[in-house]
Amino acid sequence: MYFIEGRPKNRKVVEEYIINLMTALDIHRFTARAVNIEFKRTLDENAQGLCQGDKQVAMISINKSIPFLRQMQALAHEMVHAKQFLRGELNYIENQLSWQGKAAAKVAYMSQPWELEAYRLERDLFLDCFPFDLYN
Predict the structure, then answer these.
(1) Are the C-beta atoms of 51 and 97 separated by less than 8 Å?
(2) Percent of the chain with pLDDT over 70
Protein backbone atom coordinates (compact mmCIF):
# COMPACT_ATOMS: atom_id res chain seq x y z
CA MET A 1 0.00 0.00 0.00
CA TYR A 2 1.21 3.53 -0.66
CA PHE A 3 0.25 7.08 0.22
CA ILE A 4 1.18 10.31 -1.54
CA GLU A 5 1.57 13.58 0.35
CA GLY A 6 2.09 16.93 -1.29
CA ARG A 7 1.20 17.85 -4.82
CA PRO A 8 3.23 16.02 -7.42
CA LYS A 9 3.04 17.17 -11.00
CA ASN A 10 0.82 14.83 -13.04
CA ARG A 11 -0.52 12.76 -10.14
CA LYS A 12 -2.09 10.09 -12.38
CA VAL A 13 1.29 9.35 -13.97
CA VAL A 14 2.98 9.28 -10.55
CA GLU A 15 0.41 6.85 -9.14
CA GLU A 16 0.77 4.47 -12.10
CA TYR A 17 4.56 4.71 -11.80
CA ILE A 18 4.51 3.88 -8.07
CA ILE A 19 2.35 0.81 -8.72
CA ASN A 20 4.74 -0.30 -11.47
CA LEU A 21 7.78 0.24 -9.23
CA MET A 22 6.23 -1.68 -6.34
CA THR A 23 5.43 -4.57 -8.68
CA ALA A 24 8.93 -4.60 -10.19
CA LEU A 25 10.48 -4.58 -6.71
CA ASP A 26 8.05 -7.29 -5.56
CA ILE A 27 6.66 -5.26 -2.67
CA HIS A 28 3.18 -4.76 -4.15
CA ARG A 29 1.71 -7.58 -2.06
CA PHE A 30 2.78 -6.09 1.29
CA THR A 31 -0.73 -5.04 2.27
CA ALA A 32 0.14 -4.63 5.98
CA ARG A 33 3.15 -2.45 5.16
CA ALA A 34 3.14 1.05 3.71
CA VAL A 35 5.22 3.34 1.56
CA ASN A 36 4.58 7.03 2.26
CA ILE A 37 5.83 9.35 -0.48
CA GLU A 38 6.01 13.07 0.16
CA PHE A 39 6.76 15.62 -2.53
CA LYS A 40 8.47 18.60 -0.88
CA ARG A 41 9.69 21.96 -2.20
CA THR A 42 13.24 21.29 -1.06
CA LEU A 43 15.20 18.75 0.94
CA ASP A 44 18.17 19.22 3.24
CA GLU A 45 21.49 19.60 1.45
CA ASN A 46 19.56 19.81 -1.85
CA ALA A 47 19.08 16.03 -1.87
CA GLN A 48 16.97 14.71 -4.73
CA GLY A 49 15.32 12.15 -2.50
CA LEU A 50 15.50 10.55 0.92
CA CYS A 51 14.18 7.34 2.44
CA GLN A 52 13.97 6.01 5.96
CA GLY A 53 11.95 3.24 7.42
CA ASP A 54 11.62 -0.17 9.00
CA LYS A 55 9.81 -3.43 8.20
CA GLN A 56 6.38 -1.76 8.56
CA VAL A 57 6.70 1.59 6.80
CA ALA A 58 9.07 3.33 4.41
CA MET A 59 8.98 7.13 4.24
CA ILE A 60 10.22 8.70 1.02
CA SER A 61 10.72 12.41 0.37
CA ILE A 62 11.20 13.72 -3.17
CA ASN A 63 12.55 17.18 -3.99
CA LYS A 64 10.02 19.01 -6.20
CA SER A 65 12.54 21.70 -7.16
CA ILE A 66 14.28 19.38 -9.65
CA PRO A 67 12.86 18.58 -13.12
CA PHE A 68 9.92 16.15 -13.12
CA LEU A 69 11.65 13.26 -14.90
CA ARG A 70 14.64 13.60 -12.55
CA GLN A 71 12.15 13.41 -9.64
CA MET A 72 10.87 10.17 -11.11
CA GLN A 73 14.35 8.68 -11.41
CA ALA A 74 15.03 9.74 -7.81
CA LEU A 75 11.76 8.05 -6.83
CA ALA A 76 12.99 4.80 -8.43
CA HIS A 77 16.20 5.08 -6.38
CA GLU A 78 14.32 5.72 -3.14
CA MET A 79 11.85 2.91 -3.85
CA VAL A 80 14.82 0.52 -3.87
CA HIS A 81 15.59 1.75 -0.35
CA ALA A 82 11.93 1.30 0.58
CA LYS A 83 12.17 -2.31 -0.59
CA GLN A 84 15.35 -2.74 1.45
CA PHE A 85 13.64 -1.45 4.62
CA LEU A 86 10.38 -3.36 4.14
CA ARG A 87 12.21 -6.63 3.49
CA GLY A 88 14.52 -6.10 6.49
CA GLU A 89 17.66 -5.92 4.33
CA LEU A 90 18.38 -2.42 5.61
CA ASN A 91 17.41 -1.37 9.12
CA TYR A 92 18.45 0.48 12.22
CA ILE A 93 19.97 -1.27 15.23
CA GLU A 94 20.59 1.08 18.14
CA ASN A 95 20.40 4.12 15.83
CA GLN A 96 22.95 2.68 13.43
CA LEU A 97 22.21 1.28 10.00
CA SER A 98 22.65 -2.42 9.49
CA TRP A 99 22.76 -4.24 6.17
CA GLN A 100 21.50 -7.81 5.91
CA GLY A 101 21.71 -8.27 9.68
CA LYS A 102 25.23 -6.92 10.14
CA ALA A 103 26.29 -3.53 11.45
CA ALA A 104 27.11 -1.33 8.50
CA ALA A 105 30.78 -0.56 8.10
CA LYS A 106 31.72 3.08 7.91
CA VAL A 107 32.50 3.44 4.24
CA ALA A 108 32.09 6.23 1.70
CA TYR A 109 28.50 6.97 0.66
CA MET A 110 28.94 5.57 -2.85
CA SER A 111 30.47 2.35 -1.45
CA GLN A 112 27.60 1.52 0.87
CA PRO A 113 25.98 -1.73 -0.34
CA TRP A 114 22.42 -0.34 -0.14
CA GLU A 115 23.45 2.64 -2.27
CA LEU A 116 25.26 0.42 -4.75
CA GLU A 117 22.05 -1.56 -5.24
CA ALA A 118 19.88 1.57 -5.52
CA TYR A 119 22.17 3.23 -8.08
CA ARG A 120 22.51 -0.03 -10.04
CA LEU A 121 18.72 -0.44 -10.34
CA GLU A 122 17.38 3.13 -10.59
CA ARG A 123 17.89 3.72 -14.31
CA ASP A 124 16.42 0.41 -15.47
CA LEU A 125 13.52 0.75 -13.01
CA PHE A 126 12.81 4.23 -14.35
CA LEU A 127 12.94 3.13 -17.99
CA ASP A 128 10.95 -0.06 -17.40
CA CYS A 129 8.32 1.28 -14.98
CA PHE A 130 7.64 4.90 -15.95
CA PRO A 131 4.33 5.13 -17.87
CA PHE A 132 5.66 7.13 -20.80
CA ASP A 133 2.40 6.54 -22.68
CA LEU A 134 0.53 8.57 -20.03
CA TYR A 135 3.12 11.36 -19.81
CA ASN A 136 2.60 14.45 -21.99
Answers:
(1) no
(2) 100
